[in-house]
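Problem 12. The chain below contains 762 residues. Write out its predicted structure in token notation.
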Amino acid sequence: MVKLYDEGIYLRGGAEVIPASQAAAAGIDVAPEDAKKGTIAYSILQAHNTSGDPGMLKVRFDAMASHDITFVGIIQTARASGMEKFPLPYVLTNCHNSLCAVGGTINEDDHVFGLSAAKKYGGIFVPPHIAVIHSFMRENFAGCGKMILGSDSHTRYGALGTMAVGEGGGELAKQLLRDTYDVAYPGVVAIYLEGAPRPGVGPHDVALSIIGEVFKCGYVKNKVMEFVGPGIASMTTDYRNGIDVMTTETTCLTSIWATDEDTHAFLAEHGRGEDYQKLAPADVAYYDGCVRVDLSAIKPMIALPFHPSNAFTIEELNDNLTDILHDVEVEAARIGGEKVSFSLLDKVHDGKLHVQQGVIAGCSGGNYGNVVQAARALKGKNTGCGEFSLAVYPTSQPVALELAKKGYMYDLMEAGAIVRTAFCGPCFGAGDTPANNGLSIRHTTRNFPNREGSKPGNGQLSAVALMDARSIAATAAAGGVLTAATELPDETWDEKCEYHFDSAPYDKRVYWGYDKADTTLALVEGPNIKPWPAMEPLGENILLKVCSKIMDPVTTTDELIPSGETSSFRSNPLGLAEFTLSRRDPDYVGRSKAVDAVEKQRVAGQSLIEADPALSEVFSALGRAGVAADPAAAEYGSMVYAVKPGDGSAREQAASCQRVIGGLANIVSEYATKRYRSNVMNWGMVPFQMTGEPNFEVGDYIYVPGIRSAMDADLSDIAAYVVRAGGEVEKVKLFVADMTPEERAIVKAGCLINFNREKAGK
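Solution.
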């Protein structure tokens, strides 16, 4: 079904996969370094590279997109750094805090701020319920050979020939300031598709099959996934979009697909036929790896809680319900601890798994083709009047219009489904939260803990399993009994469904303000919209207090800063920071704020020892150990240790929330994603790493002398000293992976805002 190659491969003629070790025997005499230039990715990246160095990219994007829990902070950052207007098309969608149901007026205040910013700086404003961010960008901006940057991790438009990247807000602010996205040229992995999906197998099934194979081994981590092979032609572009958006869950950097006439037809239907060009690898192209996917062998899939990579075929799950569900219960107990009682085995009756909720939504599930297939499966059926419920969220108003015109909306509602407006809430924990101990099956992008809205820290835990819309509809038709779509007759499914794009909702409701900036206008800022607090430059020497230690194999951004109702505070840095690690280490905020209070007194003129007499023993212990450490020449901050943090969302607040309450560094074994590490650096924290087990605990101190000077030198071997509660001192080796000159300067300045102000001479 899915095969990973253990070496690089050559692709010849777009169809023949030749392992590098067999290249000579196959008559290929092109060196890998030369043949790498034959990938689609190489041509697009170099067309956007301004550095002149093919190996170190400085990228300028064609357009950008943000939503209403990211755009306020980005605009505030760029504004504080000297931005006068948006220099490229910048789309501000309102698809996350759309409901305006939590926090009083503050969600709608963010929307009003966004419209005022679009008018003042020349942006494009999409009001709530009109479209989810990625649908709008597919329908209006993606095109062959383009690059788009978004402040949402699922910024993926590869199936339309666009290399799209999801990053933290700092990277978008750089583009607004006419700076560049700096990254070493990434590895490129071929995703070779052959065969054709069988009836009832949908894009989520294909995506989950791939994620299940590549995530745990990091096969495509921070690399480009380039989709090639004859299997592409077996799928519509809408179907390909559904696979492509899920590439984020592999931890890849971005994606790109070979294009064809179906791509052209999609763009033409959306009024942008001129944005089409044929994209294909050269006759001989070299890839750093290959994921070979036999589409015809893929079966309906389910990704069980609590990660998209926890993937099984529905058939395998049904054959092994007791063993597999028991493993999930064990993981739920680890996540929830003593406060949570969660079970799945109690949902097995007569050998069948009964689920309580189904949701088809967002940038992956709400696409036209997925909803049409669900409607076909449910036509004339009955979802039942029991515990099970089904909600469907079309991904945009134009999609909803067409579903209504064709009668598919009627078929869904007549069967008992609830049809809602375009909204991302079910994907990040702000919509259709299931009951405690409930199991929800969803065609959405993630099923991390809390992503469905539960609060394990309060004893509330429900869970999400990811499935394709087709199997969700089959399950709904069975009244909530887990059912694979392939159990329905083949004639139920016809993926080639006619679609007509009607732009009326966009023409009549979207504010199209690019190149129409009126800088005389004022921003409208509600009481929850706050500027970023001031940050101190990095000191020559730093003293870190260990304020949290997380030994989980992976720590998601949802655990670093929870989603859901906390999203209402995304425009209030200090207000949001109160939730940092709240569902993983509830005492972290108090510890870090105590450190920050001492540092603030130091900045105000007190000595560290005066501000916190307990630090006297720390410096005395260092002195006894022969370490020269002057408390008058040290910056003081908090530190988090995590094994592998940053999987998931691009949200910069996963780093900024640490920073604004005293965070000065992270120490990790590795960073789960480039985007989280970039967020850490853009917010002025040192992205330390270490090998081996951490030899410190919460409450210990780590002294790092000469770190500011090290930012201008070798970062591969940094001496640091652990000071334990009893006064014992132990040397530890830290290191920082490669940083660009700009990243080093940003960390030294204390944050991106400081860096830009220094650059502008302010």
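Discussion. The radius of gyration is 26 Å. Students who got a different answer should revisit the alignment rule from Section 12.3.
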